TrEMBL record, chain A:
The protein's name in its UniProt record: Simple sugar transport system permease protein
Record bears the keyword Transmembrane helix: yes
Compartments in which it is found: Cell membrane
Keyword vocabulary terms for this entry: Cell membrane, Membrane, Sugar transport, Transmembrane, Transmembrane helix, Transport
Stored Pfam families: BPD_transp_2 (PF02653)
Keyword field contains Cell inner membrane: no
Gene source species: Chelatococcus caeni
Listed transmembrane segments: 21-43, 63-81, 88-107, 113-133, 145-166, 199-224, 245-264, 276-292, 299-318, 330-349
PANTHER family on file: ABC TRANSPORTER, PERMEASE PROTEIN (PTHR47089), GUANOSINE ABC TRANSPORTER PERMEASE PROTEIN NUPP (PTHR47089:SF1)
Coiled-coil residues: none
Cellular component per GO, a single term: plasma membrane
TrEMBL record, chain B:
PROSITE patterns from the UniProt entry: ABC_TRANSPORTER_1, ABC_TRANSPORTER_2
Stated family: Belongs to the ABC transporter superfamily.
Name of the protein in its database record: Simple sugar transport system ATP-binding protein
Residue intervals of the ABC transporter domain: 20-251, 270-514
Keyword ATP-binding: yes
Length: 364, 523
């Protein structure tokens, strides 16, 4: 007995739409099993993880705040993934973006520098992310090195640089030796959308990114180029689309958006540099991109769902004493369910009787 | 080999039930009836042809016969006994062997190792080699067991597949388009082997498009059209044209070639093109010289894998030449220019592989117009795709080239080979390019579509374009080309007027017999 995957003749459109929803439901079920195995009530966990945040205005606002970096990064990643290039180092590009953008905030700290500070920070953050992402792009285009490995490894380099900076040269002298920079001035902080809330203008940038990505992906020759490159590389070559150039461009886009997300996060809601500026947004965004089926609006929705798991995870730490690692576990389960559902939409599972080793040739 | 010996006799066994009989075989995929109550009977010692255009249902029927698909209806009888073939293992244990069109061989292993890989694991390599030597001697399948596969020609590779198949003691062998990769001389050797096999009592089901060889080899033929049997005939008693008519359902017209002007100005010129191969075991090009004149069809013959793909890449600009002057279009050096720039200078290209190279399988036809036309005007404005224009162009191609499809704008992969090829060729011809380079224009395409494509290519040349056709199909080249050159081991022979050439001379050039010694297999 063995299992075979057979490609379906025509995957149904309804199945395609339902797959992420079913994947989400399956992930909740499996997550419930894990919670039960840890000796807590799955229903209580569901309440803390999902229902409470969704019925609490503060938590809803927080959900949008957390979704902002996820959506920005995932929209960028969708360009890469469409072209079948695997930038999984968005976390590193996020960190480098935060560092580069913060140089302006730190250099102008305590001065009367005016309205140019924020735009300069955003620009430098974006460029920093691009530069960091261009390293794996260059290695791939020039030497054929797997971008999966190089982009991932650069995450650790970026994190260690940040760690060094906030413990060393950039440490706040009045910060009681905590590894953190000074708190940014008002001129270096993103304006809030509501008084007294935490909702900052970063979400608007994410929305713009979603709309622009939708238009570019669906209606321009550049979007076409990416889809051809991803789906049929030989056809892309026949079409005259240079693969190295495509590689550079998509890494620049995804790195730039990850870098922007990094500086937006620091200038928007953290207000200073410290070693832990991201709970793994760059990695979670990979799940967001796939949960959203690489569609910008799908990514917006998926970003909100994943943000919910972060908030629920924080609440569960407090009320149910469940470790934060459970949130990561759940995100992993969700990714597997999404990929599994995608596979089932495209393929049919068939059980085949009889082992192939039973060689028919011996019949004689 | 015992059973094979027991039934050995001369020619077809005319008494008793047939070796295999398929009755009322029907296979339905969704709304498509691929096989509609097909009857097929093959006797021991018989070479039976299965003919039909692409999409006629041949592959489905063969897959059912080999246990890869289960019929929706109908029964299969083996020597009069009903059998159920639930998988290839069961088909093989009955004695059904299959030689596929695409070989599944390990390039870096030797012939003997490749054969051993398909045998039970308890046999030693020496035992396998001994058995293989027996079989190859018996049926004239000479092949050097110690050579690595990557050094072998397609004909030799096919012999390995046939030996592998014969070692399973088959009573019935199914061959799918076996001569498509062979030179005429190699095909002749294959026919000798098949005749010896039939004489020893083995039944052969022979699937082919090439009617002349079917008429030469087969004693009966079943013709499929649109999933049904339209006739079972003795192909030796019927002309190739009549058989083709049965396959297509209408009478076929010959290509009206006329002869191209020998005096036209050269539009595509290649001087001293040498190009290293990109892949391991690929073919490097060596010092290629050619010129295609306005109004002319130049044919390049050759066995697959002798540098055709590399030549196409160098001409199209998918790979750049080592200098600008190596390739020239209408007198302009383009060796350093990419595909899009060459297209803008009036050149157009049709690659060998339709799905994945000439078209994106999961894209709709309208989107696939962009693939080769995005840079030459009309479809893109300021970076935005003009969706209406792509749809209008797709419609124009579909109407002009009689592309049959389901739905308004289907995905490329849902079209049959012939219809997709009409689309891919039509996409380029409608541009009225000054230079057209086509690699294998009718490879795996049904007779009706092939005739349409050939006529369109000839008409384009007659209107003043230079048309270069790279093809493995000699009949096609003799039908269309004004001059023919042969590519072998990355070298191109000097083109000669088609009228001065015979199939035999071209066939010899294709095997490299006329090339200086030492250039052959100089890996």
């Amino acid at each position: 007995m063995r299992i075979e995957l057979q490609q379906r003749q025509a995957p149904s459109a309804i199945a395609r739409l339902l797959a992420p929803v079913l994947a989400l439901a399956a992930a909740f079920l499996l997550g419930g099993v894990v919670v039960a195995a840890m000796g807590r009530s799955p229903l209580a966990a569901l309440d803390v993880y999902v229902l409470q945040p969704l019925s609490d205005p503060w938590a809803l606002q927080e959900m949008v705040v957390k979704a902002t970096p996820l959506v920005l990064i995932a929209v960028g990643l969708s360009f890469c993934f469409r072209a079948n290039l695997w930038n999984i180092g968005a976390e590193g590009q996020f960190v480098v973006g935060a560092i580069c953008g913060s140089t302006v905030a730190l250099a102008t700290h305590g001065t009367e520098a005016g309205a140019w500070v924020l735009p300069a920070m955003l620009l430098l953050g974006t460029l920093g992310g691009m530069a960091w992402a261009s390293v794996p792009a260059f290695l791939r285009a020039r030497f054929g090195v797997s971008e999966i490995l190089t982009s991932l490894m650069l995450v650790y380099v970026a994190e260690l640089i940040l760690d060094y900076l906030v413990r060393g040269p950039w440490r706040d002298p009045k910060g009681f030796n905590f590894p953190q920079s000074v708190t940014f001035d008002e001129a270096a902080t993103l304006p809030f959308l509501t008084d007294g809330g935490r909702l900052h203008v970063g979400i608007l940038m994410a929305l713009v990114a979603v709309v622009v990505a939708f238009v570019v992906m669906g209606h321009t020759i550049f979007g076409y180029r990416l889809r051809v490159t991803g789906e049929a590389p030989r056809a892309a070559r026949f079409s005259g689309f240079s693969e190295p150039r495509t590689t550079f461009i998509v890494f620049a886009i995804s790195g730039g958006l990850a870098g922007l997300a990094g500086i937006v996060e620091v200038a928007g809601q953290i207000g200073q540099l410290k070693p832990s500026i991201s709970p793994g947004y760059g990695f979670t965004a990979i799940i967001v991109a796939f949960l959203g089926r690489l569609n910008p609006f799908g990514i917006l929705l998926a970003g909100l769902v994943m943000a919910l798991t972060f908030i629920g995870g924080e609440a569960a730490q407090i009320t149910l004493r469940l470790p934060f690692d459970l949130t990561r576990t759940f995100q992993g389960i969700l990714l597997f369910c999404v990929l599994g559902a995608d596979a089932l939409v495209t393929y049919r599972v068939r059980l085949v009787r009889g082992a192939p080793a039973q060689a028919a040739g011996r019949a004689a | 080999m015992t059973e094979l010996g027991a039934t050995a006799g001369a020619g077809a066994d005319e008494t008793g039930p047939p070796l295999i009989a398929m009755h009322g075989i029907t296979k339905v995929f969704g709304s498509l009836v691929a096989n509609d109550h097909i009857d097929l009977a093959i006797r021991a010692g018989e070479i039976h042809a299965l003919l039909g255009e692409n999409g006629a249902g041949k592959s489905t029927l063969v897959k059912i016969l080999y246990g890869l698909l289960e019929p929706t209806e109908g029964e299969i009888r083996w020597r009069g006994e009903p059998v159920r073939l639930a998988g290839p293992q069961e088909a093989r244990s009955l004695g059904i062997g299959m030689v596929f069109q695409h070989f599944s061989l390990f390039e870096n292993l030797t012939v003997a190792e490749n054969i051993a890989a398909a045998m039970p694991p308890d046999l030693s390599l020496a035992e396998v080699a001994a058995k293989a030597r027996d079989v190859s001697g018996q049926y004239g399948l000479s092949v050097d067991l110690d050579r690595p596969v990557w050094t072998l020609s397609a004909g030799e590779r096919q012999r390995i597949e046939i030996i592998r198949c014969l070692l399973q003691d088959p009573r019935l062998i199914v061959l799918d388009e076996p001569t498509s990769v062979l030179t005429p001389q190699e095909a002749d050797r294959l026919f000798v082997t098949l005749e010896r096999l039939a004489a020893s009592g083995c039944a052969i089901l022979y699937i082919s498009h090439r009617l002349e060889e079917v008429r030469r080899l087969c004693s009966s033929a079943t013709i499929l059209r649109a999933g049904r049997v339209v006739a079972t005939i003795d192909p030796r008693a019927v002309s190739a044209r009549e058989i083709a008519g049965l396959m297509v359902g209408t009478a076929l017209h010959d290509v009206v070639a006329g002869r191209g002007a020998a005096e036209g100005a050269p539009r595509l010129v290649v001087r001293g093109l040498s190009l290293a191969s990109e892949k391991a075991h690929g073919q490097a090009l060596r010092d290629i010289e050619l010129a295609v004149r306005a109004g002319e069809v130049l044919g390049i013959a050759g066995v697959a894998g002798n540098g055709q793909g590399e030549l196409f890449a160098a001409l199209s600009g998918e790979r750049l030449a080592h200098g600008p002057d190596v390739v020239a279009i209408d007198g302009k050096p383009v060796g350093h220019l990419g595909v899009t720039e060459r297209r803008r200078l009036g050149a157009a290209f049709v690659p060998e592989e339709r799905l994945g190279h000439g078209a994106v399988p999961d894209h709709r036809l309208a989107e696939n117009t962009l693939l080769s036309r995005h840079g030459t005007g009309g479809l893109v404005s300021r970076g935005f795709v003009l969706a209406d224009a792509t749809r209008a162009l797709a419609t124009r191609i579909i109407e002009t080239f009689d592309v049959r499809k389901e739905g308004a704008d289907p995905r490329a992969r849902t079209l049959s080979g012939g219809n997709l090829q009409k689309f891919v060729v039509g996409r380029e011809i409608l541009r009225e390019p000054g230079v057209l380079v086509v690699n294998q224009p009718t490879w795996g395409v049904d007779a009706g579509a092939a005739a349409l494509i050939r006529q369109a290519l000839v008409d384009l040349a007659r209107s003043g374009s230079a048309v270069l056709i790279i093809s493995q199909d000699l009949d096609e080249l003799f039908e269309m080309a004004d001059r023919i050159a042969v590519i072998h081991a990355g070298e191109l022979s000097a083109p000669e007027a088609t009228g001065d050439l015979t199939r035999e001379t071209v066939g010899l050039l294709m095997t490299g017999a006329a090339a200086p010694k030492g250039t052959v297999h100089a890996h």
